[in-house]
Design goal:
- By secondary structure, the chain is mainly alpha-helical.
- It folds into two domains: 50 residues, no CATH class; 31 residues, no CATH class.
- The chain is built from four helices and two strands.
- The radius of gyration is 17 Å and the shape is elongated.
Length: 92
């Protein structure tokens, strides 16, 4: 099972229950606080910037209709399509 030390999330995941679940799994949550929070948790904007890279990658993959609608039934064929789309998206 893959493990991580730091988990990034957007403001929609800023709740005590979600933070507790992440910490119980052994990771540190890096979630920006919502505007209506009285007490803000620890948050690093510098580390949060790496989340944007992942969001842009998913945005590029969604440009491929086969990936966005998931035409493939088996997981191996879908993974192969994702690998081909990634190669094309980042090669061009």
């Amino acid at each position: 099972m893959p493990s991580t030390d730091l988990l990034h999330g957007d403001k929609g995941y800023d709740s005590a229950a979600v933070r507790r679940k992440i910490e119980d799994a052994g990771a540190a949550p890096n979630i920006p606080p919502r505007a209506n929070k009285r007490w803000t948790n620890c948050f690093s904007p510098y580390l949060y910037r790496s989340r944007n890279v992942i969001e842009r990658m998913f945005g590029r993959l969604k440009d491929f209709r086969r990936i966005a609608t998931r035409y493939d039934r088996s997981a191996t064929n879908f993974m192969a399509a994702v690998c081909i789309a990634t190669t094309v998206a980042y090669w061009l």
